[in-house]
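Kindly inspect this today.
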Amino acid sequence: MAGNITLGAASRSNLLSLQNTTSLIGRTQGRLSTGLKVASALDDASAFFTARSLNNRATDLSAVKGKVDQAISAVSNAVQAIDSASKIVEQIRGIAESAKSAATAAERSTLGNQAELLAVQLNNLINDSSYNGVNLLKATPDNLEVNFNEDSTVELTVAGSNLTASNMGADISTVTNNWGTVGDINADVNEYASALGQLRTASQTFGSNATLLSTRKDFTETLVNTLKEGADKLTLADLNEEGANLLALQTRQQLGINALSLASQSEQAVLSLFR
C-alpha cells in the first residue's frame, strides 16, 4: 500500500520557487521568439488595446497617404501637360510672327493652316493628359477631391481648368480670316499671348496645389511612423534585456534545482533516523 508523500517546508518552498522560475523562463523565451512583450490582452490589456488602436489608425492613414500620393501624381501630370501645351502655343505664335513677313496672302494662308494643325495637336495633348482616369484640363475638366484624414473631414478640392484651344484667348483653334492681313495676324498674336498667360496661371495654381498635397503627404507619413513607434513601445520586447533576463533566470533555475536537491537530501537524512 502506497503512502502519501509529504514534502518538508524547505522542499515546498524550493519547489514553488523553481516552478515560478520555470514559468518566467517560458514567458521570456516566448518574448524572445515573438519579439513581443505584449502579445495578447492577457499580458497587458491596456497596452494591448492602446497599441491596437494606434496601429489601426496608422493603417487607415497609410491608405489616405497612398491616395494623396496619387493625387500629387495627377496634379503633377497636369502641370507637365501645361508645360507641353505652352510650347505648342509658343510654336503657333512663332508661325504667326513668320507670317507677318510672308510675301503673299497664299503664303500667309498656308502658315495659318499650319497654326490650326498645331491647335489640333494642342487639343489632342490636352485630351490625352489623363492620370488614372482624371483629366484636369479637358473641355469639361474633372475636379480632384483629396481627403487628408481617415474620417474624410478634412479635404482639398483641386478644380480642373478647361485648357482646350477653343477656350484659350478668344479662341486659338482657328486663325482670323486665314491671316489675310497683317492686322489679322496681330490680332491672333495677342490671343496667343493671352493663352500663354492663361497657361502660366493654371500652372501656378496646380503647382501650388501640388506643393500643399506634398506637405500633407509628408505630415501623414510622419504621423503614421509616430503612431507605429508608439504602438511598438507598448508591445515590443527589448531583446537585449530579455536575453539577459533569460540567462539570469536559467542560473536561478539551476540554483533552485540544487537547493531542492539539498533540501530533499536533508529531509531524507532526518527520516532515516527514525527507521
About this structure: The chain has two domains: 45-234, 239-268. The beta strands are 144-147, 155-158. The chain has a mean pLDDT of 87. Residues 239-268 form one domain.
